[in-house]
Amino acid sequence: MSATRSLVVASNNAGKLREFRALLEPLAWELTTQADHGISAVEETGLTFVENALLKARAACLGSGLPALADDSGLAVTALGGAPGIYSARYSGAQGDDRANNEKLLEALADVPEGQRGAHYHCVLVYMRHAEDPVPIIVQGSWPGEILSLPRGEGGFGYDPLFWVPEQGLSVAELSSELKNRISHRGRALAALLEQMER
Ligand SMILES: O=P(O)(O)OP(=O)(O)OP(=O)(O)OC[C@H]1O[C@@H](n2cnc3c(O)ncnc32)[C@H](O)[C@@H]1O
Ligand SMILES: [Mg+2]
């Protein structure tokens, strides 16, 4: 096993932080969060997950002097032309109000029948060694599913109670956290990141 390595996770989302801890701490990564370093959230002015993840990672490197991992992610619903997409956290207007975001999504899909409610979760991860790193590692993971008409389950965060995983016959909020972390957009992206870091 390799020596402990330190990383700042450039996120204020408690659900993401829980997932990163579960995935990385067993691999001897020592995680701190941007809040631990007094770093405030950047304005997410990018038009892609990639741009926003780069902004978050750079700010966390600058504020901490440590390598940073940033996650910009979201839900893209086919019947809504890919919305809420990069605006997933602020879909309802208020930043990070999961309940209001889920309600808005159900309203937007009220007239969309089963069979036309396909969606993907997307996750872009950026690993930046320092604030001027000219070659940050950028990876992404996607997870296909369908949007339910009623929420199911208590686990996860964000849109998980509405995201149906056909292969499991469960919503993401009904999956164990271990299973979600293994097969999710974030889990897949992180596996790709770790593979690239070892090259
Ligand atoms: O920017 P940070 O501080 O990381 O936290 P955030 O919640 O604002 O994160 P994003 O800007 O990347 O927005 C991602 C949103 O997409 C949704 N989302 C992403 N991954 C998810 C997951 O695994 N389960 C449920 N919803 C998810 C959820 O609404 C998140 O708030
Ligand atoms: Mg955000």
TrEMBL record:
EC identifiers of the protein: 3.6.1.66
One of the protein's GO biological processes: nucleotide metabolic process
Cellular component annotations (GO), alphabetically ordered: cytosol
Keywords: Hydrolase, Magnesium, Metal-binding, Nucleotide metabolism, Nucleotide-binding
Reactions mediated catalytically: ITP + H2O = IMP + diphosphate + H(+); XTP + H2O = XMP + diphosphate + H(+); dITP + H2O = dIMP + diphosphate + H(+)
Presence of keyword Metal-binding: yes
Pfam families: Ham1p_like
Active site as annotated: 72 (proton acceptor)
EC category: hydrolase
Residues annotated as binding Mg(2+): 43, 72
InterPro entries: dITP/XTP_pyrophosphatase, ITPase-like_fam, RdgB/HAM1
Binding partners and assembly: Homodimer.
Task performed by this protein: Pyrophosphatase that catalyzes the hydrolysis of nucleoside triphosphates to their monophosphate derivatives, with a high preference for the non-canonical purine nucleotides XTP (xanthosine triphosphate), dITP (deoxyinosine triphosphate) and ITP. Seems to function as a house-cleaning enzyme that removes non-canonical purine nucleotides from the nucleotide pool, thus preventing their incorporation into DNA/RNA and avoiding chromosomal lesions.
Protein name: dITP/XTP pyrophosphatase
Species this chain originates from: Kushneria konosiri
